[in-house]
Amino acid sequence: MDHPRRLQVLQAIVEDYVHLREPVGSKALIERHNLGVSSATVRNDMAALEEAGLIKAPHASAGRVPTDQGYRVFVDRVAQVQPLSSAEKRAIQTLLDSAEDIDEMMGRSARLLSHLTQQVALVQYPRKKTVTVRHIELVPLSNAMILMVLITNTGQILQRNVATLHTEEKLSFWRRVLNQQCEGEPLHLLTELQPTPPDAPGLSPLWAALQAMGSQGDPTRLLVSGTAYLAEGAVDFSRSIAPVLDALEEQVVLLKLLTGIDRNEQGFAVSIGQENPEDSLSEAAVIARGYGPDEAAALGVVGPTRMDYSMTISKVNAVARYLSKILSES
Q: Looking at the structure, do residues 259 and 119 belong to the same domain, yes or no?
């Protein structure tokens, strides 16, 4: 969509629908927005937007509402981050600066982000330093037992016995495969890696032991605040908010939402509707941003696709920025 006027019409439709929660017609657009064209031209533009899959009619003879694709074009091409007011900036800084320890700061951050955005807030605890795999060694203990030793970049040593028949040739092969794939990888992400090649002879028990090490190496905590806001916006979910509430109970799902979606050039990750990997979130939107050292941790919000993206991105960014500043000074 490279048509400036139609992007302007799309922007007007998104903004009106977000704030008024009702389908938007051409007459309303003319009355509420200075588009500088006739109502006939606006109707033609709306028809083109509908044909492109960016807006749709929820009912016969109704106005139009944005689709997931329409929201995506709006976020990528039109939305501009809204600056926070001086009062909002002071409130964020005062609240976070006065926290006495990391637990209080994380709790305040989650509650603050939820209050500012009127959405469900997710805040991952910061990692002071990302722990990665430096080297994996396999030490034969007997003909049927191996000691797997994993050394991290921080000097941490993890060990695990693995029952498997082996030869020196097999040990050499396994050692090479494991180090080629795992050296430099974050320890906590070993549980998500898949062996390559997946059918390498004898690798399965070693890989299972390696993933078990990953699960114990870098525990992650996640705070959730503001689920009551979903109930207030239940009308925005055509089926039920129950699947979204269920997803919010799954820490693994939430961590993948925060850290697994691609960030844009500005550092934000925005996943809308059907873009979400979980079917339970097909009517939800996720906005996330990294923070802290190397932006290794993340925070964000979950809400309906009918969301004020410009405002929400601004406030997610502000909280992330202040948290990063505080952590860098601690």
A: yes
